[in-house]
Amino acid sequence: MCKYFLKMNLYRGLFCLAGILLMSIGVSEAQVQDSVPQIKPSTTVKPTLTVKDTVVIKKGGRLSNKKRKRRSNSPRKALLYSAAFPGFGQIYNRKPWKLIIIYGGGALLGLEINRQHQRFLQFRNEYVKKSQDPNYEASFNLTAENLKTIQDQAKRDRDFMIILSVLVYGLQMVDANVDAHLMDFDLNDDLSFRLEPTMESTPFSNFAALSLTLKF
To answer: What's the rounded Cα separation, in Å, for the pair 107 and 69?
Structure first.
């Protein structure tokens, strides 16, 4: 009798627990249904189209809706500017750092021209005095023939430096002209240059070589 009573109480407890679970599930479903908006049958939903603005992102993180315009230089103006004033064509092409090369090289050539000219004048005077007076003691006790040789060598070196100065003047004109032409030249981002060692094989022998790869 006692066991039967315990079983009945156990069954009742299980039924009560199941009822509580079912009630809680029903309440949660009702809350979900209440939170979902109801759409009436007569209501029609129209699709909406969203248009996003597009921008162009420049280097450096700045945003702009305009394309960057590239400035083009006139090669003729760059050539004329360099001819009138050495280095001004490079400034016109926005390459002022090239003035260091132009004027640095020009200063070295000018100093060397002056040094060789002074050397030429010195040994020319020594040669004239030695030729007129055999007893004249020249520098380093040189003979007239040696003085003549050094004089001619100094003259050749001076003239050679003058020619180099003219070449530097012409090269800076050409550089300004070519640089202005290349202002409109668009390089591809995929351009690459690679030089690496490789092995070449022939039916008779194997030998090492260099492989040059240019991608554009």
So the answer is: 38
The string of pLDDT tens digits covering residues 112-164 is 999 999 999 999 999 999 999 988 988 888 999 999 999 999 999 999 999 99
pTM comes to 0.54
101: containing domain: 74-185
Look at residues 152, 123, 156 and name the one whose alpha carbon lies nearest to residue 140.
123
User: Total domain count for the chain?
Assistant: 1
Cross-strand bridge partners of residue 211: 196
Does a structural domain hold residue 131?
Answer: yes
Q: How far apart are CA 178 and CA 155, in angstroms?
A: 35
Residue 38 located in a structural domain: no
How many CB atoms neighbour CB 117 within 10 A? 17
DSSP 148: H
Please count the CA atoms within 13 angstroms of the CA of 58 that sit on its side-chain side. 9
Is residue 57 in a domain? no
Q: Tell me, yes or no, whether 201 lies in a domain.
A: no
